[in-house]
Each structure stands twice: as structure tokens, then as C-alpha cells.
Amino acid sequence: METQTLTFLFVGLSFAIYIAIAIWAKAGSTGEFYVAGGGVKPIYNGMATAADWMSAASFISMAGLIAFLGYDASVYLMGWTGGYVLLAMLLAPYLRKYGKFTVPEFIGERYYSDTARIVAVICLIFISFTYIAGQMRGVGIVFSRFLEVDIITGLMIGMAIVFVYAVLGGMKGITYTQVAQYCVLIFAYTVPAVFISLQITGNPLPQIGFGSTLASDPSVYMLDKLDQVITDLGFSAYTDGTQSTTNLFFLTMALMAGTAGLPHVIVRFFTVPKVSDARKSAGYALLFIALLYTVAPAVGSMARFNLVNTINGDEVTGTEYSEMPSWFKTWENSGLLAWYDHNQDGKIQYAKGNPLDGKKPTFAEERGAQGERIVTNPGKGEVAEGAPFANEVYVDRDIMVLANPEIAGLPGWVIALIAAGGIAAALSTAAGLLLVISAAISHDLMKKTFAPQISEKQELMYGRIAITVAILIAGYLGANPPGWVAETVAMAFGLAASSLFPVILLGIFSKRVNRKGAIAGMLTGLIFTFCYIVYFKGVFIEPFAANIEENWLFGITPQAIGGLGMIFNFVVALTVSHLTEEPPKEVQEMVASLRIPRGAEQAHAH
Amino acid sequence: MTEQENHEAYWRENIKLVFLCLAIWFIVSFGFGVLLVEQLNAIRMGGFKLGFWFAQQGSIYTFLALIFFYVHQMNKLDKKYNVND
């Protein structure tokens, strides 16, 4: 069968499974809608958490990021897995013992304050919408590239599917679809990785393969060869870092604490029956995440290796356009790959340096002599320091995972699998985010703050309305991605790390931190981090200062600043609390009871 | 021992365990993966430089082992102080 037919078949089949699960798992009460009735087995919750957490960014973008950044990208691997250690030991079991529905609810009750709850709701909505925009864009990319429908049609289909199982099934439907989506995405990610690892190193385990010798030359290790090949092209060595240690340190911290502070991840631990299950299920979640996260660096290094060798050829002199494999041309058609023949030799060469004038290529209508797309914004074609020739190729990082099976020449069904996996990763994360947004609105804002008189049935209806509106907004953001989406992903992590994480942690581990301390701490972390990012990145407005090392505070990039914001939050919250009165007796008793596993009932509304 | 003293003793042991785990968590990631990466890269493990391996593989395996170790120890602790659920 043709790849195209297979792709339709795989994607269609996976959609049929998701819908069948949705019909089977319809939610009847607010408990089922918000926390799946609190009866999810730890291993299933682990899978659902893994799918919830691993987004289009993890599936599509991360290996590409590693491929081009090498060692420097390690902070994402460590940050996004190390956060689960914090979750398992510092947050998940205690929030499960608390036994209610949402993160703002905990903050509001622990700090006996509607203000604290509303600040938490604002952080949550901002973080979650930022994320969703990225997921919807992921769905659009996969649909338009593999199914050759336009992005809007692809988005509509994606929205319709999420609508069916999220609105009907709530958390219950989402949980069991996420279990299915995890299976699809992990299979789709590891199968091509195993093939590629076998091809390049002869070892079927990618985690070991990228530390093995080459199948073509058993006297050389793959990573050493890669280091040598790319340093010859003017790049820095793959296994060495280029960023400052301080910045890597704070970035890792921001990513770890940000992961632990993300509401859609935390709320997954409200769905298990017992406190001990919450701990165990954090372990399962990391196990299932690690299956992808330990393969990703192997995929990244091998993709870089394949890309360089395919383009430059064995002689490192370049390859003629007409001799390039078909994937080069398909991705060129999508505009994510481009070639400009700077030295006019008719061959494609890849080395360090920007081939373009600007960040993205623009193309003319007509084709060049060899049938290539003509780039209308070429750079000057200068040879970068240490490179043998000028770089002529523009590669978007996002294509590395999607194009990898084609670059390695794998069969059509593997490529079809990647498409189904990418869509599963994007949809599962989008659904989890939609649910926390809807819960924050119907539960924290309506039921707990502005309309306490509504019945459970009405609350459930508001929840479903909120999720529907959220899907429409998410679809709009996916169709018209605002320019600041990429910038705000850094902000989502920074804000989760600097606002939510410290106050939740202190709420459990300190009986002394009071309302004033928590609000002051949250606002300090939030405002400091937000302003630092806007100052350099200019969300909505022009940046105030150039985003360069000389201008940064202690050499910390805007992505990493959440780590510092978190420290400020802790210091301010503790200082203010110790200068003001103790929290009321019943709050101190509540904290004491959080720490004891016994007596955790199923999550309830009262 | 009153119930409250029992709970406080349980909490102290829990904190000690968490500190131990987080110390290891910090050493393998921030320590081996970031601060000491250059020194460790002088050591080879097959095709990997050791610092690079910790940053991209070893830290993740250690995190996993840590959580399951913590789960196991906490379950024992819960029983010892009779606070298990």
C-alpha cells in the first residue's frame, strides 16, 4: 500500500479507538468529570500522565533540538524528567491526601484567601493556553504534511475528536484515551529509532546504540565520528557545551520546578485511590516518560549524523540536487527546508553558518534549473570560521523526527506510524490542558468564588460549556498562531516554577507560611519573571533591550529566569510570613493532616 | 507515645528520606550533568564521555531508581508508624 493510504488508515484507526473509549467512559458526576471518580489504577495513571505530559513538543521538536544543540540540550532531558522526582516526593502524595479537585482550590484553602485562589487561577489559565496553542499547531503540521489536507481542515478534525471525548467523558474519558494515546505514541517513537540504531550501529537498543561503534566502521564510535564530522564543518563538538554553566544551572532548575508546578500534570495525581498510589504512579509516569526521553538523545544524534552525511556525501563535497532523495524535496515543498547554491557548483553543501538573510526562507514562484525552489532572501554566502565552505542549507529543527524515517529510508508503514504518534501526543496534552482550564472556571471561579449556590448538575454543565469555549479558543490560536507563542512557552515554565511551585511546596512543608507571605511570594515570582521575559523578548510590545549576554542578569537567559524567580518567591514568602501573624489554628491542623497518608478518601466536592 | 508524637516522628523520618533522595537527585543532574561535566568527560564509558552520558542518560535512570526507592521506603515507614492508608 502507498504511504499516504497507510497514514489515513493508521490515523483513522487511532481516532476510532479514542471515540469508542469516550462513549464507554461517559462522566456522570463532577467527581468523574474533574478527577475520574478518583479510582484510576496507578499504572494507568502513570501512562495517562506520560501522555498528558509528552506533548507535540516532546514528540516532534525535542529530538530536533537535541540534534542541533548536542550537549546543551541535555538540560531539557534532565529538567523535564527531574521534575517528577520533585512531584513524587514533595507534592503528589500530599495533594492527593488533600483530596479535592484543583490546584487553585488547594492554594485558596491552605492560604484561606480568595485572592490567592484567583491569582492561582490566572497563572493556571495563562500557562495552559500557552501550551494549547503549541499543541494545536503540532496537529496542524502533522495533518498538512502527512495527510496533505490544509492546516485548517486538520485542526477542525482534531478539535472535533477532542470535543467528543473531553466534553462527554471529562477526566474519566481523557484518562482512558490518554492510556491509548500513550501506547500509540511510544510505539511510533521507538520503532523507527530501533531501525535507525540498527542501521547505523548494528545495536537494536538506541540508548546503547548511540554509544556504540559504527556498523560501517567498527573501529570508530558513533559519537566520536559525529564530533569529528561536525567540527570539520565549523560547528562546535556535539558532546561539548557552549552555554555558560550558570545559565544551564538555572535553566535546569526552572524546567524541573516548572514541570512539578504544571497544573495539568499535578491534577492527574488527584485521580488515584490512595496516597501511596500517588507516589507509585509518579514512579510509573517517569518510567513511561523515560522510555521516550532516553531514546530521544539517540534519535537526535543519529538524525544529525544521517543528515550531514546524506547532504555532504562521503567525500564531503556536497550532493547534486537531482541526486538528493525524495524527502529533501517534499520538505522543501513545505518550506521547512531550503537550498541556495552560494558557490554555484550545482551541489548542496551543509556547514556552519546562516545560508539566509533573516531567520526563515522566502521563495519565488518559479523553480530553478534543477527543479529546486528559488530562495529570494539568500545571505552573502560567507564561509563561517572553521568551515570548509559556505552553508547552503536551511533546516527547520521541527522536521528531524518527522523526516527521520524517510532520511533513513524506512518503509511506508513506519512513516504512517509517526503521523499517528504525533497526533496522539498533541491531542492527549491538549485534552489534559482543556480539562484544567474548564475545572478552574467552573469549579474555582463559579462554584467556589462567584456562584456558590449552583447545583452539581449545573456545575457539570458549566464545566462542559467552559471546555467547549476553550476548544474553540485553542483552535483559533492554532489556526492563527500569534508570533509570541514560541516565546511564551519559556514563560509558561518560568511562571509555573516561580509562582505555583513554591507556594504549593511551602503550603505542605511549612505550617508557618501564611496568607500574606504566600500572596507576596507568588506576586514577586510572577511579576519578576514576567517582566524579565517581556523586557528581553517583548511579548505584545517591543523588547526594551537586546536579548544578548551583556544585558542579562548574571548571564541568565529569559528561558532560565524562572529558576531565579522561584528563589525570590521562596525568600519573600518566608520572610513576610515570619514578620506577620501565624496562620489560623484550623489551617495548621489541615497541614498536619496532609502529612499523614491515613484517611485519604476519594476526592470529593465537600 | 501520643498520636501527635507518633505523627511528628513519622514526619521527621520522612523529611530525612526526602533529603537523602534529593541530595542524590542534585548530585547526578546539577552535579555530574552540569557543574562537573568537563571533569567527568575526561573519563570514557564505551563510546560515551561520562559527563555527557550522565546529562543525557544516567541522570534519568537515577531519577527512576530514586522514585521507586522512595516509594518502597515510604510504604515501610507508613506501616512502621501505623499511618498507612
TrEMBL record, chain A:
<dbReference type="Pfam" id="PF00474">
    <property type="entry name" value="SSF"/>
</dbReference>
<feature type="transmembrane region" description="Helical">
    <location>
        <begin position="556"/>
        <end position="576"/>
    </location>
</feature>
<keyword id="KW-1003">Cell membrane</keyword>
<dbReference type="InterPro" id="IPR018212">
    <property type="entry name" value="Na/solute_symporter_CS"/>
</dbReference>
<dbReference type="GO" id="GO:0015293">
    <property type="term" value="F:symporter activity"/>
</dbReference>
<keyword id="KW-0812">Transmembrane</keyword>
<feature type="transmembrane region" description="Helical">
    <location>
        <begin position="491"/>
        <end position="510"/>
    </location>
</feature>
<keyword id="KW-0406">Ion transport</keyword>
<feature type="transmembrane region" description="Helical">
    <location>
        <begin position="517"/>
        <end position="536"/>
    </location>
</feature>
<feature type="transmembrane region" description="Helical">
    <location>
        <begin position="282"/>
        <end position="303"/>
    </location>
</feature>
<dbReference type="InterPro" id="IPR019899">
    <property type="entry name" value="Na/solute_symporter_VC_2705"/>
</dbReference>
<feature type="transmembrane region" description="Helical">
    <location>
        <begin position="179"/>
        <end position="200"/>
    </location>
</feature>
<dbReference type="InterPro" id="IPR038377">
    <property type="entry name" value="Na/Glc_symporter_sf"/>
</dbReference>
<dbReference type="GO" id="GO:0006814">
    <property type="term" value="P:sodium ion transport"/>
</dbReference>
<dbReference type="InterPro" id="IPR050277">
    <property type="entry name" value="Sodium:Solute_Symporter"/>
</dbReference>
<feature type="transmembrane region" description="Helical">
    <location>
        <begin position="248"/>
        <end position="270"/>
    </location>
</feature>
<dbReference type="GO" id="GO:0005886">
    <property type="term" value="C:plasma membrane"/>
</dbReference>
<feature type="transmembrane region" description="Helical">
    <location>
        <begin position="146"/>
        <end position="167"/>
    </location>
</feature>
<protein>
    <submittedName>
        <fullName>Cation acetate symporter</fullName>
    </submittedName>
</protein>
<keyword id="KW-0739">Sodium transport</keyword>
<keyword id="KW-1133">Transmembrane helix</keyword>
<feature type="transmembrane region" description="Helical">
    <location>
        <begin position="6"/>
        <end position="25"/>
    </location>
</feature>
TrEMBL record, chain B:
<dbReference type="Pfam" id="PF13937">
    <property type="entry name" value="DUF4212"/>
</dbReference>
<dbReference type="InterPro" id="IPR019886">
    <property type="entry name" value="Na_symporter_ssu"/>
</dbReference>
<feature type="transmembrane region" description="Helical">
    <location>
        <begin position="17"/>
        <end position="38"/>
    </location>
</feature>
<keyword id="KW-0812">Transmembrane</keyword>
<feature type="transmembrane region" description="Helical">
    <location>
        <begin position="50"/>
        <end position="71"/>
    </location>
</feature>
<keyword id="KW-1133">Transmembrane helix</keyword>
<keyword id="KW-0472">Membrane</keyword>
<feature type="domain" description="Sodium symporter small subunit">
    <location>
        <begin position="8"/>
        <end position="84"/>
    </location>
</feature>
<protein>
    <submittedName>
        <fullName>DUF4212 domain-containing protein</fullName>
    </submittedName>
</protein>
